[in-house]
Amino acid sequence: MVIPGEQPFFGTASEVRPDPELACRILVVDDDASLRRTLPHVLARSGRSFDDCGSVAAAIALLQHQHYDLILLDYRLPDATGLALLDWLSENQREEAVIMISGEDAIDAAIGALRRGADDYVRKPYHVAQLQRAVEGTLHKTSLERANRAMSQRLRASERLHRYLVESSPDLIFTLDAEGCFNYINPRVQALLGYERSALMRSPFVSLVMPEDMERMRSLLLSPRGIPTESFNVELRLRRAVDDKSGQDGPESITVSLTGIPMMGREGGRQASGLYGVARDISERKRAEEIISFQAYHDQLTRLPNRVLFKDRLELAIAQAQRRSGSLAVMFVDVDRFKLVNDTFGHAEGDTLLRGIAERLSATLRRGDTLARLGGDEFTVLLPDVAQPEDAETIARKILEVLAPPFRLSHGDFRATVSLGIALFPRDGNDAEELTRAADIAMYQVKRSGKNGFRFFDPDLNSHYRERIALENDLRGAVERGELELHYQPQISLHRQRVVGMEALLRWNHPVHGMVGPAAFVPVAEEAGLIGDISRWVLEQACRQLADWREAGHDELRMSLNLSPHDFDSADVVGMVTDCVSRHGLPPSQLELEITESMMMQDAAGVAAKVRQLREAGLSVAIDDFGTGYSALAYLQKFPVSTLKIDRSFVRDLEGPATNPIISAITGIARGFGLQLIAEGVERAEQVETLRTLGCDVMQGYFFARPAPAAEAGGWLRAVPCGAC
Predict the structure, then answer these.
(1) The PAC domain covers which part of the protein (predicted)?
(2) Tell me: the pLDDT tens digits for 25-74?
(3) Structure pTM?
(4) DSSP string, 208-275
């Protein structure tokens, strides 16, 4: 700016108009050495120089001897977070600009960095161009701030520089007289608020303040003592001019950070003669803070409240219901078969489906209700005013109805259903956690009952789940405490008139409940991730017992045992079995592992490969419960098994050869594939005779012997069965 009649004064380039590319020192603080080597090349510009270090302590050591224009600061460092360095800069009143670079997903990291003075926040992974823009913008901002500080120092010495700085400032700068009216205001007011400078002269400052903040500013500026005698800083909203001719829509106000500095009278007077004020537009920062706050309490995919906000609203609703002795309902909604969409069509389609479900669910709820997404395919609903359970049931039915029409995805239509559990306050719980858990339990009961429905929480369900949790807790450590046992049931060859095999059957000798069968605790072990340790114990015990019986002279005895389907999910299941057989010196063919048809159909390729490896190692593999699946013949082509076991459901109602086409077919299949055949569940003499007639020689069941401990089972090996052991 040039003052008429005077020579322009701009000072030196470095003092007044610093170029961010001249003499710019940048410090890179990151524990990734490769990144410290790369960033100087990516951000290289004329005049820029770079230093680097890998920890907060090393950065402070450098800063104690050197000033920098910019610090590129990693959030997560070996000795502390980057927030510690921001605190050090603040405590030492340093002026370095800081760009925080972080891979943290939590919003708290960004909030903490910005509140501690970081100029920008870049989330990993980032594009190079994004980082370059952030650096350019921050250096530009820093250079402006440095220029403003340099010009402010010259303000006391030069009227010309004072005028240049004030009237070119990006901030709104003004002075007020003792009555709080404008007697100077810089040109920035035109761009910032849309007012002409002349129109505001001699007008009170509070005329620009929005009604919400006016009383606060009146008390500050127009107190009985007049203009305040101490500096202050406040945030407030200033009114923007409305231009009816322009027809442009814009915000009614802007948010500014106002710094007021009293202008004291001469000769040490204590009464302020006026006020010097600087108002900086922080609207963008406030909007950014609002966005960050929204992201902290809302799901980014559906824009619904998240778990934290839902819990806050539920706790508030409970407090209100307690005061007025009212009631409320909590719903837990889980999308059925959602994994199928992700696995089949991809996660993008899954996200589209979740957004569609969220929209339909929202449409069924009342204005005061809350729909939240907890994560994945789980939603919760808060119904704060429920006069009776039927009200919640009505909404549940509406939810099922509104989801009935198919959702249109890019790969075709998909009909989504949900399982919905309902809990009522105060009947089913007194706090947010209890109610949500109760609704969750009810939802899982719907899942187990066939999905696509709703159910109210039943206290008996909670007892069942408590018992299940107690059972799981007891099961942990059962192996170490020696509570697990193996019982053995003989497999009898009618032709050879002796025991040819033993099936190892797992039992749990519970210290309170007594002997517990595998059907009661194996599913719990599978869900809790305990089945691997239990299967290794079963394998070890069965192999040790077979080795003992072989040493006693029963060289041809075969040991049969079941492994869980989860065991076949493990990559080392083959090695686990072969190592155990080798360690006990057993012929591999004398150990037979039983698998089910359902296991084969769930992961045909994976299971078939492991079965092939087991067979190649010489072990026997039997299909347990043969004939109960849907694709037995097709899978026999793929699985090199050695034995078929006829399921007890086919044996139970045997009356004669002519009435048993299924068993006849199974025996034909066994002969056609060259497989051994075992019938299980044999309980009556007529079943024995019918199976013998149909061509089945090896049998097991209560007719011969019930499962028993090894000591009793050893006696069967020395006996010749005559109808029963």
Answers:
(1) 232-294
(2) 999 999 999 989 999 999 999 889 999 999 999 999 999 999 999 999 99
(3) 0.47
(4) GB-HHHHHHHHHHHSBTTBS-SS-EEEEEEEEPPP-TTT-----SEEEEEEEEEEEEPSTT-SSEEEE
* Residue 43 sits in the same domain as residue 135: yes
Contacting residues for 289 by C-beta, under 8 A, at least 6 apart: 111, 114
Element (H, E) at 561: strand 558-562
CB count within 10 Å of CB 32 equals 12
Candidates 655, 533, 629, 539; CA nearest to 591 is 539
CATH number, domain containing residue 306: 3.30.70.270
On whether residue 2 sits in a domain, the answer given is no
Average pLDDT for residues 364-384, to the nearest whole number?
Answer: 92
What is the spatial distance between Cα 41 and Cα 49, in angstroms, rounded to a whole number?
11
| Residue 8 included in any domain | no
CA dihedral over 696, 697, 702, 703, signed as positive or negative = positive
What's the token pair of residue 650?
Answer: 């086919």
In this structure, the strands spanning 498-510 and 558-562 are: parallel
Q: Does 132 lie in the same domain as 67? A: yes
Provide the CA 355 distance to its chain's centre, in angstroms.
17
Number of structural domains found in the chain:
4
Residue-wise pLDDT for 329-352, tens only, equals: 999 999 998 888 887 788 889 999
Domain ranges, residue 599 = 481-716
Q: Check residue 8 and give its pLDDT.
A: 41
For residue 462, name the pLDDT band (cuts at 50, 70, 90): low
Is the predicted pLDDT of residue 511 greater than 80, yes or no? yes
- Give the pLDDT score at 628: 65
Report the largest interatomic distance among the alpha carbons of the chain, rounded to a whole angstrom: 131
Alpha helices in 618-684 (DSSP H): 632-636, 648-651, 661-673
Long-range contacts of 524-529 (CB under 8 A, 24+ apart): 524/468, 524/471, 524/472, 524/475, 525/475, 525/564, 526/564, 526/565, 526/566, 527/472, 528/472, 528/475, 528/476
